[in-house]
Write a structure and sequence with these properties.
This protein is mostly helical. It contains six helices and no strands. It starts with 6 loop residues before the first helix and ends in an 18-residue tail after the last helix.
Length: 144
C-alpha cells in the first residue's frame, strides 16, 4: 500500500500543517498542542516519507519486494530514537529557539507507535486468506 493512500498518514500531515499555520501564522496558542503535538506527529510524517522513498527505490529492483516493503519494529525504534536524540539534544545546542523537554521523548515514541501500527503496512496485509482446496474457508472450520 502506498503511503500516499494511507488515511492515518494524511491525517498526521494535515494536523501537523494546520498546527504550524495556527501557531506561527495566526498566533493561536494551545498549551498542550504547542508542546507535544509536533513531536507526536513528526515521526509518522517523516517515517512515512522515508518508507515511500524506500518502496519507490526497491520497486525498480523487485516490484513485489518494493510494494510489500515495511520497516521492522527494530528499525522503527532505532530511527525514532535517533530522531528524538537529534531533535531534543542536537537542535537545542545549535539554536536558542529550541528547548529540551524530556517529555518529548515519550511523544516521539508515541508517534513511532502510530507509524508502526497504522502506517507501516504492505500489500500483503490487505489480501484475504484464500480458501483451501477441500472447500473449507481458512477463517473457520465449516464447509462452504
Amino acid at each position: 500500500m502506498a503511503v500516499w493512500s494511507n488515511k492515518v498518514w494524511w491525517l498526521c500531515m494535515i494536523l501537523f500543517g494546520l498546527h504550524q499555520i495556527s501557531q506561527y501564522l495566526l498566533g493561536c496558542k494551545f498549551l498542550f498542542f504547542d508542546n507535544y503535538l509536533d513531536p507526536i506527529l513528526s515521526i509518522p510524517c517523516l517515517l512515512g516519507l522515508v518508507l515511500q522513498e524506500r518502496r519507490f527505490l526497491l520497486f525498480f529492483l523487485d516490484k513485489q519486494k518494493g510494494k510489500n516493503y515495511r520497516f521492522s519494529l527494530f528499525e522503527v525504534i532505532v530511527i525514532t530514537l535517533f530522531l528524538s536524540i537529534l531533535f531534543e539534544e542536537g537542535f537545542p545546542r545549535w539554536s536558542k529557539s529550541f528547548t529540551k523537554d524530556y517529555w518529548d521523548y515519550i511523544a516521539y515514541f508515541l508517534g513511532g507507535a502510530i507509524f508502526y501500527f497504522f502506517i507501516n503496512k504492505n500489500e500483503a496485509n490487505k489480501k484475504p486468506i484464500p480458501n483451501t482446496r477441500d472447500g473449507q474457508n481458512a477463517y473457520s472450520n465449516s464447509k462452504i
